Amino acid sequence: MKLVYSGKVRDVYEDRGDLVLVASDRISVYDVVLPTPIPDKGKVLTQLSLWWFDQLADVMPNHVISAQDVPPEWAGRAIRCQRLRMIQVECIARGYLAGLGLTEYKAQQSVSGVQLPSGLVEGSRLPESIFTPTTKESVGVHDEFITFANVVTQEGEHVAEELRRLTLEIYRRGAALAYERRIIVADTKLEFGRSVNGDLVLADEVLTSDSSRFWPVDQWEPGRAQYAFDKQFLREWAAATGWNKTAPGPEIPEEVVEATRARYIEVYERITGQRFAES
């Protein structure tokens, strides 16, 4: 197989006309890949994505061809996928205020041009879910907020409308299902591509701890940082070290590695109701 792309977490190979998407145990924060891997992270991301792809199959098609027809050394962490022409927009849905959305709100009382009420605080539930797209930059470059009008200019009005509709519907469905399992999906990032027929297809990963903010329902409290089953735990640790957020990143201590791994596995098990099969 030919390696065609290596990202922060995933490596993409070409094989028999398809793509094989391999999720590594690498982890990135602030757009920097840290030198210490998180064991089993690639498998957790892959298995959770596959579960969500099944749950959302009636919303739209996805890129999965097979999770079994992959090289045995990547079993559990790889997916054979369709080749797609990727849409160059990061499609983000937000139901709660956190992260860069909170930073943008504090500066402008809006996110991606969507005006929000005054008086919101960290962790606030938004009056309704919003579509807050960003640019899709290369590894090591920060994505930047763009408006819906920017998406219209780039992709055309019809495609922009569809991206917004699908992003919000996938978020609505996913957040409702997760809430039944006592998990809040505060926000999530989705990626879409076009098939050879020109149809929009859901791609990459979906509703994972790398692409979403997951909070336990019983610990949610607006006005403070939330307990996180996602990368926020590691972001906070990294920031507390005094690191300047540029490469190279700091080595992750063993206890932080294990705590991060445990949170990824716990939210997988809570959402899917399945026990994670460890390596």
Order of helices and strands: EEEEEHEEEEHEEEHHEEEHH
Radius of gyration: 18 Å
Q: Helical segment tally?
A: 6
Class of the domain at 85-219 in CATH? Alpha Beta
Largest sheet: 6 strands, antiparallel
Task: Report on this structure.
This protein is of the alpha+beta class and 279 residues long. It has a domain at 85-219: ATP-grasp fold, B domain (D-amino Acid Aminotransferase, Chain A, domain 1, 2-Layer Sandwich), CATH 3.30.470.20. The chain contains 6 helices and 15 strands. Strands 8, 9, 12, 13, 14 and 15 form a 6-stranded antiparallel β-sheet that branches. Strands 1-2-3-7-6 form a 5-stranded antiparallel β-sheet. Strands 4-5 form a two-stranded antiparallel ribbon. β1 (2-6) and β2 form a beta hairpin. The protein is globular and about 55 Å long. The model has no long low-confidence stretch (mean pLDDT 95).
Keyword list:
279 residues, alpha+beta, D-amino Acid Aminotransferase, Chain A, domain 1, 6 helices, 15 strands, 30% helix
SSE order and pairing:
Layout: E1 2-6, E2 10-15, E3 18-23, E4 28-29, E5 32-33, H1 41-55, E6 64-66, E7 78-81, E8 85-86, E9 91-96, H2 99-108, E10 110-111, E11 114-115, E12 125-131, H3 148-155, H4 157-180, E13 183-194, E14 200-203, E15 212-216, H5 232-240, H6 254-272
Antiparallel strand pairs: 1-2, 2-3, 3-7, 4-5, 6-7, 8-13, 9-12, 9-13, 10-11, 13-14, 13-15
Give a quick rundown of the structure.
The chain is 30% helix and 24% strand. It has 279 residues and is of the alpha+beta class.
